[in-house]
Amino acid sequence: AQAAFVPQELTTVRVQDPRVQNEGSWNSYVDYKIFLHTNSKAFTAKTSCVRRRYREFVWLRRQLQKNAGLVPVPELPGKSTFFVGSTDEFIEKRRQGLQQFLEKVVQNVVLLSDSRLHLFLQSQLSVPEIEACVQGQGSQTVTEAILHYAMSNCGWVQEEESRP
Length: 164
Fold this sequence. Notes:
Blueprint lengths: L10 E11 L7 E10 L8 E7 H15 L18 H19 L3 H4 L2 H8 L4 H8 L7 H10 L4 H6 L3
Antiparallel strand pairs: 1-2, 2-3
Helix pairs in contact: 4-5, 4-6
Subcellular location: Cytoplasm; Endomembrane system; Endosome
Membrane topology: Peripheral membrane protein
Pfam family, one: PX
């Protein structure tokens, strides 16, 4: 008998388009676009696009570590305050590191079961809002928050189309 064809679950995650926010002010920071495309049942939305900054990645990694028990959580690119080279170079290195981090995380079944990861990747909720949502104190469930974001206009489609 022919074995049923099971399509390969595939999740592509890209960290792209670093942008400096609040440029010129003392609290300027860089955020990155996280584009996710998947056919995995683990994800609520099949495509998503959010912007996150390094500090939020640091929070995410700490949370994943807390919940993953003995499962090793991938490393983030360094916090290097002393960096030789241009800012652009630093940002690009960090972008690559963040992408590698997420690529490893989304391939790990244990980490994928953490709803904080899903809200981080598929909603634009802030860190305190993610915490509240995960603890059931938000106005929406995790799935509702993700679907709400997916349906809203700030989802990825509009952003892709608004390019010249």
